[in-house]
Amino acid sequence: MPTETVKSKVEDTSRDWASGLDELEKTPITETRWGRFASRLWAGTWPKALALVIVIGFWQILFLSGWKDPWALPSPLMVWEELAAYVPTPDYWTAIGITMQRALTGFALSVAVGSLLGIAVARFKPLRAAIGSAITGLQTMPSIIWFPLAILLFQISESTIMFVVILGAVPSIANGIISGIDYVPPAWKRVGAVLGMRGFQLYRHVIMPATLPSFVSGLKQGWAFAWRSLMAGELLVIVAGQGSIGALMQGAREFNDAPRVLTWIVTVLVIGIIVDTLFRAADNKIRRSWGLDQE
Amino acid sequence: MTETRTASRVDDTARAAGAVVLTDVVKRYGRGPGAVTALDGVSLSVEPGSFTCLLGASGCGKSTLLSLVAGLDDLSGGSIDHVDQPVAMMFQESALFPWLTVQGNVEIAMRVRGVGRAERRRRALELLETVRLTGFAHKRPHELSGGMRQRVALARALAQDASVLLMDEPFGALDAMTRDLLHDELERIWREQGLTVLFVTHNVREAVRLGDQVVLLSSRPGRVLNVYDVELDRPRRIDSAPVAALAAEITDALREEVSRHAN
């Protein structure tokens, strides 16, 4: 019997064995992607809709009870009418534009400062010993506490608001990076070393990508702090000629215009929800592609 | 190209690609009276293109030995001579990067060395074919089974283009059937590529199934107790009688060594 035939037969058997085992390991897909998407959308939507109905119902009852005068506590319908009338005006959108521009500038600067600070603290032990716990301490401070100092330093100006926004957001972003770097699995670093990565290469190809999930949750928290600081700042520090959300809201309060105040409150809530959805989408995308969402 | 650590002696015969020569290797952790000696005078000569299994109970320093050969750890004494630096290495956990596709994980080994994009791609697909994962190039690691992940890790190690491959219990976490398959696959790839393999395991049958020589190490401190030459025809089967017979002999020696540590 020619040995060639025997050898190729062994080869074929082993190939079939490999692909057979691989095939059995696969999990059968039971639902289509669209079916899953639709059911997930519905599962996410109905509790929100129900909660909204309950809140508005409670508000309407409170209004009807006559607990406060209508000029102080308007009904949901009055606020809805104000919203419908105000939203199409340029003032409304200009204010959102000014506020969002501040928010994005402040956030971008915070990301830059926070990332560098985070890497530096994670990398250099003495620096961590010196300011590691101070960063966490800063995070717990209400940012409004900085405004008196900020006003003394920068008077009533954009810089005052930026200063407080950055102080609010930087600690969260830095902490996200620090804990991300701390928890990079040693096995990944070992693989990096075996592949010949040194210094910067190890950061570029292993440590930075591995930090991504923690970085994104730091960003999300940083945004929340930046946004809160900004709202506090806009209500306290009214820069002349800048009709931001906070400035217009203070204006409305001075005219006892409760429907408009509530219109802004709703607007700020909606912006918060939109941004949170974006962060959540980014977070979910990472979790899915890393396989962290599996039970 | 030859790297000699601790430079005390350079053995010219060790300079053939793929040869690994360990001379009186000592590894101690800590200093003073609390110091632990993990390896105590291990000398070993590995022929180019051969398959060597390092076998021992817990505490024999077999993983430490691999780390030393890989240059991940510093020697306390002796020398290790081989041509490649770094050598390729595989671990019990595949440790694939979840942010990269299967193909990206294989390419990363070449990216570090500055291999061009087109060449990286070509070579990665070729290696995925070698480990029989051609259709999985664009999958993420979490979409694969444990055995498939280890095959990707093997492809990544092969992408280092080193002539020496170190394997630290690479199949320890796999089920018996998958392990059996991977033994066949590894044996085939080892012969095709002419690699020198240093394979750490605590599974005696696995060592006999795969190795040209099986090096039995003692525990605390690790010393070479015996070197068994396995002169059985390939391809072997883990359940064949000659493999079982030699495994039994080695197991007896291993038990004797472990009993020595009883109180």
TrEMBL record, chain A:
This is ABC transporter permease. One of its GO terms (biological process) is transmembrane transport. Belongs to the binding-protein-dependent transport system permease family. PROSITE patterns: ABC_TM1. Residues 96-279 form the ABC transmembrane type-1 domain. Its main location: membrane. InterPro entries: MetI-like, MetI-like_sf. It is a multi-pass membrane protein. It comes from the Bacteria.
TrEMBL record, chain B:
Keywords: ATP-binding, Nucleotide-binding, Transport. Residues 20-244 form the ABC transporter domain. PROSITE patterns: ABC_TRANSPORTER_1 (PS00211), ABC_TRANSPORTER_2 (PS50893). InterPro entries: AAA+_ATPase, ABC_transporter-like_ATP-bd, ABC_transporter-like_CS, ABC_transporter_ATP-bind, P-loop_NTPase. The keyword Translocase does not apply. The keyword Nucleotide-binding applies. GO terms for molecular function: ATP binding; ATP hydrolysis activity. PANTHER family: ALIPHATIC SULFONATES IMPORT ATP-BINDING PROTEIN SSUB, TAURINE IMPORT ATP-BINDING PROTEIN-RELATED. This is ABC transporter ATP-binding protein.
